[in-house]
Specification:
Domain tRNA wybutosine-synthesizing protein: 18-201
CATH class of the largest domain: Alpha Beta
Shape: elongated
Number of helices: 9
Mean pLDDT: 81
Oligomer: single chain
CATH architecture of the largest domain: 2-Layer Sandwich
EC number: 2.1.1.282
Number of strands: 9
Protein name: tRNA wybutosine-synthesizing protein 3 homolog
Strand content: 15-25%
Pfam families: TYW3 (PF02676)
Strand order of the largest sheet: 3-2-4-8-9
GO molecular function, one term: methyltransferase activity
Distance between the termini: 33 Å
Length: 266
């Protein structure tokens, strides 16, 4: 975590302005759009009161050139995919590598990454806890001069040199192996994204969660009061036999409904 440079009082006042400005900025990534697999996640974050996204990638597998002439152009992507590869696509990766004129080519898998601007440090800490719980143990909070940024990151990266000085250093079976290994990482990556999306629900909708929690607590309190009253009436003989049976059946029915509610809310 960086040194605290931000004026938190002024930042809190300007957060909504920062958010509105960010959400109308044109996407500056090479793809120029949010990856469809994380579109619902990013929409949920941007529609929340205390967060908005500043950059994201659902995960990708690339063949890229490391030649000096290409590095000056921010590196050339020879082939890129944001989805697992089938056999035909693996062959297309191989063909692209064999036909490219670059002398140094590598294959690289990069997992999901997300940068989220947070309204307060507490909001950032709350989401960071869910990042860690979801498997993004390389995540962290950055406090700059104008924003509180949460970086959601994992350690699933994979990078393998394939050619050097124009010579293929591995056989084609090894390239296929790396492509299939990337497919496994894609699957794990997507499962982790789903887990993260589910885990941050309390951060995105704190009022809804609190309201649901209060309703359950109120219901439990009402049942307890009813049970105490029932036991008092029963002990003093003021409750008729049929009324006692009806009350017991009602308690069982309510308890059953609560168990069903808990089952579907878990």
């Amino acid at each position: 975590m960086t040194t605290l440079k931000i004026n938190l009082d002024n930042y809190a006042k300007n957060f909504d302005v920062l958010k509105s400005q960010q959400l109308i900025i044109e996407d500056a990534s090479r793809k120029s759009s949010i990856d469809f697999r994380i579109q619902p996640l990013c929409n949920a974050i941007n529609n929340s009161e205390n967060y908005f996204t500043t950059s994201s990638c659902s995960g990708r597998f690339i063949a890229f050139s490391q030649d000096e002439q290409f590095i000056k152009k921010n590196c050339e992507w020879i082939r890129v995919t944001h989805d697992p590869l089938n056999e035909n696509e693996i062959q297309e990766f191989i063909n692209a590598i064999e036909s490219h004129k670059s002398s140094d080519i590598s294959l690289k898998f990069e997992p999901f990454i997300l940068h989220v601007c947070c309204r307060s440090l507490n909001d950032a800490k709350s989401m960071l806890e869910q990042c860690i719980a979801s498997g993004y143990r390389n995540s962290g909070i950055s406090l700059g001069s104008s924003k509180i940024i949460l970086a959601v990151r994992s350690t699933q990266n994979l990078e393998c040199p394939i050619t050097s000085n124009g010579n293929l250093m591995v056989d084609l079976n090894y390239i296929r192996y790396i492509c299939n290994l990337a497919n496994e990482k894609f699957q794990e990556n997507f499962e982790r994204i789903e887990r993260f999306y589910k885990n941050i629900e309390p951060c995105l909708n704190p009022e809804k969660i609190e309201k649901t929690k209060s309703k359950k607590e109120l219901k439990a309190e009402q049942r307890l009061n009813k049970k105490i009253m029932f036991e008092n009436l029963k002990s003093t003989g003021q409750l008729k036999k049929q009324e006692r049976r009806d009350s017991e059946d009602s308690d069982k029915h309510e308890s059953c409904l609560d168990e069903i509610d808990n089952l579907f809310s878990s």
